[in-house]
């Protein structure tokens, strides 16, 4: 039984506060099939979001599910299924894969054969069995809605909320889906609420809730709908609604709803009443639904590690399916190191020693010293520049790796969170996937430049600093992605973060002292550049570089420590960002 008691939802702040829903009091008994109708913008989707717990704004009143106030104890993931108005799934996956991953994320691990069978059954149920190998990207609007429904049915929820799942369907598909939803409410004692604009098959619903300007204008059996609104037919109803304001409809309904007495105890009845707004006399008692069978037992959810493995495998599959993304990654991994190496394709120039004036006159000594200075400054700048170039390109790859990662699929993630996905499993899945990318990018960059340019110093610690800077930028941008509302915003901010790296690192021009102290902790490029240059200690190049750069280098240990802090803080912030509720 779902009870909404005087539910009001306010949006806005200060003087702009306005209600999206006002004083909505309705109940839906077990096994109930309810329609929610009303003109566009009247609050239908908002009402489903309020029930689901994802509505924006301040809520008043209470929502009680089977005697439990959901404000105190949320719906458990297997209790509720929500098919949003605009269905969402990963475009790169097939229909079967989407349902299979949905099942693995929501239901405790099962053997692959049992899983295949269960997925097949759900696809059969929604009439998508013939399309199981089709990619989501090529599905029609109606097929997408069926898929969205299938993905909710995997956990056999005790309550199913559907937002316009029949919109845009041809009449036959609409018939099939409405009958399917009706059947779902009958076979498992499930509460099924369906927002719709279509009043075809209105007789199949146990009740129709009419919302108008955020208020309840009617909630009762479909038989009395046209009568109550003095509408010639059901389609005429929308015109009739405009005759009064929302406030008037609400007052009128408050007067009459008393007459709709619900009795329970074996059967749910709606007693018909006298509708004075419609000028009608009393109508006979109408039975709206037979005894509902008991709820199916709720299915246990999978563990955190199982969800992590499922997400990782799905992310890898999507990565390899997306040809454009794959080509871009390969281009970056192989192209960027070539770009760096072109500056010293035949190796670094050697710096000749000074002959210390032996057998030379003063003029020759000055000429030699001048040449030495010019040469060392060129080689020092080249060594420092090659390191900074590698570092900046790796930060660019880092931003590209993760800037869009969460923001681009936020709606899917929010839905999955509702269905029991743990933010920790989600972020861990992302961290491992991105970690593999970071390793491939940084190792190839370091090895290529080392061998092609004959870059001096210890290779192993250099690779560590290159990996760390890429990982630091990747996890900071992952955090950005988890906080911003759209993929475009997130990737723009990520690119700005990269843009600041070079000027604020002090590698090209020294920063004013106060600015250097202030910003350096945040500039990953400085710590990696400094760390790599420290690995040249003991080499002649180290002294030459020190002569050229105007910014002091930091000890290698400190560089590792700061870069690791960036990674940890970035991942932690991403986890916080993922726990935050983003609106769907
Ligand atoms: N996050 C939000 N902030 C401000 N206003 C909102 C927000 N979400 C919805 N609204 C407003 O609330 C009203 C109800 O929106 P809702 O999406 O519930 O309408 P609806 O009845 O589902 O309409 P439709 O039939 O077009 O889907 C609209 O005027 C909408 O602009
Ligand atoms: Mg809507």
Shape: elongated
Distance between the termini: 25 Å
Can you summarize the main beta sheet? Answer: 6 strands, mixed
- Give the percentage of residues in beta strands: 5-15%
Layout of helices and strands:
Layout: E1 2-11, E2 18-28, E3 33-37, H1 44-52, E4 58-65, E5 68-69, E6 80-83, H2 95-106, H3 112-125, H4 141-153, E7 159-163, H5 171-187, E8 191-195, E9 207-212, E10 215-220, H6 225-228, H7 237-241, H8 246-257, E11 262-263, E12 268-270, E13 286-289, H9 304-321, H10 323-341, H11 362-402, H12 410-418, H13 423-453, H14 459-483, H15 487-505, H16 513-519, H17 524-534, H18 540-548, H19 556-579
Magnesium ion binds next to helix 1.
Describe this structure in words.
There is one protein chain. Mean pLDDT is 87; it is low at 261-297. The protein has helices spanning 44-52, 95-106, 112-125, 141-153, 171-187, 225-228, 237-241, 246-257, 304-321, 323-341, 362-402, 410-418, 423-453, 459-483, 487-505, 513-519, 524-534, 540-548, 556-579; strands at residues 2-11, 18-28, 33-37, 58-65, 68-69, 80-83, 159-163, 191-195, 207-212, 215-220, 262-263, 268-270, 286-289. The protein contains 19 helices and 13 strands. The chain starts with a strand and ends in a 5-residue tail after the last helix. The radius of gyration is 32 Å and the shape is elongated. 51% of the residues lie in helices and 12% in strands. With 584 residues, it is of the alpha/beta class. The protein has a 6-stranded mixed sheet with strand order 6-7-8-3-9-10, sandwiched between helices. It folds into 2 domains: 2-79 and 157-289, 3-Layer(aba) Sandwich (Rossmann fold); 304-579, no CATH class. Magnesium ion binds at residues 44-45, 85, 163. Adenosine-5'-triphosphate is lined by residues 11, 20, 38, 40-46, 56, 85, 583.
